[in-house]
Write a structure and sequence with these properties.
Chain lengths: 181, 449
């Protein structure tokens, strides 16, 4: 535990530009969490509406399921950077307790670099998918057939923000690592 | 490279990535993508994002965040305390009635909230202090809550069951119904044990009293008036109505499982707004944030687990492993025991969602070939994974209990929980001998398969 405190005490002050960038990212994450919260509740209302109109008004509906899928997919991807900021993506921590603190810090950097490699790759492939869907005008195969750039853009934005979040966390770890050398 | 080497490499790489401490979602995604790049045509690597999207864009899977929202709304309100108080008022005359009331409260709450840790913390935060005040040993009190909480992943709307239904391509409605009989069996076993253990602690306290004159809270007899009994009912009834309403909507054919999730979430929010006046954005924020945190973490694991099993199946790893298991020609029960043992071991490290999605393509074909009913197996597998929630090293519920009652030593909690692990094993054995406990109810309601 004392090491955590040491980190804070010996940490080099982040440059001004970086602190501004931190604040901007935190602001965006906060905004995304709010948007995701609204999307989630909206999905609940859309599905409730679907039950009501089908049962009471006998109107068959075709857009509710897909709308809620888009809303929830959006909520999940858009809030993933905010969850990463809190280190909320669960990992197996069995090894962590067994390693000396310095090795553990190195392990954390490796873990984040691996996570970044995957998330950045995924974000890149999402961008190309979004581009294709936009250019070629992909639509979903249902009778309603909404354009697919909508959910793809949510996924792309979310994965890009997640990658940026991990880059920031790696930079923080390196800064903590340097003075202790 | 031979299929065996690729398979071993895939498993090895996964273990390495996970034990290095890479978040489970990214570890699974990274290993799957790496193997796509190395062993699959380049075209398939380009579709990695599309693949994950298509696997995730299922309305059944996406009902999970809404079930979590419903659970969080109920969990953050004082509903748990009220529910438990009302049950206690009605059951206090039974020996060990307080413990039994806690088991029942856990079961009812779990059925409303669908989450194991949420149940533990909602019922436990009121139940554990009360049981300890009334002389129950700390281990016994925490065991009841930890074990009662596990009913959350068995009773509908269990997230684990939703995933199993998707992975095993079984009817979710049928699976939900199949869990009810076994859940009642577990409730009965837990309540029976609570009664027996109470009697033991009671007689020990009585002997002590006769010997030394030492008073014990266990010996005190409650007197509750009829007014006490009815005073709490109005607060609990709406939630019981919500629970039955959602069930009727689902099984009466008025709503699909995902619509039920939406309806349940909206109703739960409406109920906490009307009964506990929780409705301002500031009050709702913690509910929404905890929902998003849990759902995002879970849904990314689910999406990446699906990518992981897609790659495993594309490379024929899952099919070959399944065929290999079939070719061993193990007797049915040895096969079942071996598979359950594997689930137990995986439960030491992995959350139930990953266990289901990663192992389903491998273990379900041999089980089906051996003539096991996959709905029945879903229930058995869930009970086994419930055990993983209360035994070390992960034992999520144990840590929830440590949070609500930090002064109870971890060992007391672990020892208090162990008899319940034994009861769950007993339930699995009973279900193997009498599979009808699980299959009878769905057959009766939905007709035989």
């Amino acid at each position: 535990m004392a090491h955590g405190l040491d980190d804070v005490e010996t940490e080099q002050a982040a440059p001004l530009s970086r602190r501004a960038a931190d604040r901007i990212l935190a602001f965006i994450n906060n905004l995304m969490v709010k948007a995701s919260s609204i999307a989630l509740v909206a999905a609940g209302f859309v599905l409730t509406y679907s039950v009501i109109v089908r049962y009471f008004l006998k109107i068959s509906t075709d857009w509710q399921d897909e709308t809620s899928v888009f809303l929830i997919i959006g909520a999940v991807f858009l809030s993933s950077a905010a969850v990463q900021a809190l280190r909320g993506h669960v990992a197996i921590e069995t090894v962590v307790g067994l390693l000396p603190p310095r090795v553990n810090r190195l392990r954390q950097i490796l873990v984040d670099i691996a996570s970044l490699a995957f998330c950045a790759f995924f974000a890149w492939k999402s961008w190309t998918l979004l581009h294709e869907a936009w250019v070629d005008g992909y639509h979903s195969g249902s009778t309603w057939g909404p354009p697919l750039w909508i959910p793809y853009s949510l996924m792309t934005t979310g994965m890009t923000l997640l990658s940026i979040q991990i880059v920031f966390q790696i930079m923080d770890e390196f800064r903590r690592w340097t003075p202790a050398r | 490279m031979s299929l065996l080497s690729i398979g071993l490499l895939y498993g090895g790489a996964t273990l390495f990535a996970m034990f290095l401490g890479i978040p489970i979602a990214f570890a699974l995604g990274a290993v799957a993508t790496l193997f796509m790049i190395i062993f699959m045509p380049s075209g398939s690597v380009d579709t990695v994002a599309q693949n994950v999207y298509e696997e995730m864009a299922s309305i059944t899977l996406l009902s999970i965040p809404l079930f979590i929202l419903k659970g969080a709304a109920i969990g953050r309100s004082p509903a748990g305390r009220d529910l438990y108080g009302a049950l206690h008022a009605w059951m206090h005359w039974i020996p060990g009635g307080l413990g039994i009331a806690n088991v029942f409260a856990c079961a009812l709450f779990a059925a409303m909230a669908g989450s194991s840790p949420a149940t533990c913390s909602a019922i436990g935060s009121a139940g554990i202090p009360e049981m300890r005040k009334r002389g129950y040993s700390p281990g016994f009190a925490s065991g009841i809550i930890a074990a009662g909480g596990t009913l959350g992943i068995l009773l509908p709307p269990s997230i684990t069951m939703i995933l199993y239904a998707v992975a095993a391509e079984q009817s979710l409605g049928r699976l939900f119904l199949a869990a009810i009989g076994p859940a009642l069996l577990l409730v009965t076993l837990f309540a029976g044990y609570a009664m027996w253990k109470f009697q033991r602690e009671f007689h020990a306290a009585l002997a002590q009293y006769k010997l030394t004159g030492a008073e014990s809270e266990l010996l005190r007899v409650d007197t509750l008036t009829v007014y006490d009994k009815f005073a709490l009912l109005p607060r609990v009834l709406p939630f019981v109505i919500l629970l039955t309403g959602v069930m009727v909507a689902l099984y009466g054919g008025y709503a699909t499982p995902s619509e039920t999730a939406g309806l349940g979430a909206v109703l739960a929010l409406a109920l906490i707004a009307s009964i506990y006046s929780v409705w301002t954005p500031n009050e709702l924020e913690p509910i929404l944030i905890s929902t998003l945190r849990e759902s995002t973490m879970l849904m990314l694991i689910i999406g990446m687990s699906l990518l992981y099993s897609y790659v495993m199946s594309y490379l024929h790893i899952s099919q070959s492993t399944a065929q290999w298991i079939v070719s061993l020609e193990l007797s049915r029960w040895v096969l079942l025991a071996a598979i359950l043992l594997m689930v137990v071991v995986l439960g030491f490290f992995l959350p139930p969602v990953s266990i289901i999605l990663m192992t389903a393509p491998i273990i379900l074909p041999p089980l089906k070939a051996a003539g096991f009913d996959l709905i029945w197996f879903g229930v058995i597998m869930t009970i086994i994974m419930e055990m993983g929630l209360i035994h070390p090293p992960v034992g999520l519920n144990i840590f929830v209990i440590k949070n609500i009652a930090p002064d109870i030593p971890l060992w007391d909690v672990v020892w208090g929980v162990m008899p319940f692990v034994g009861l769950m094993m007993l339930a699995v054995v009973v279900l193997c001998i009498f599979p009808e406990i699980a299959t009878w109810f769905p057959d009766a309601i939905m007709g035989a398969k």
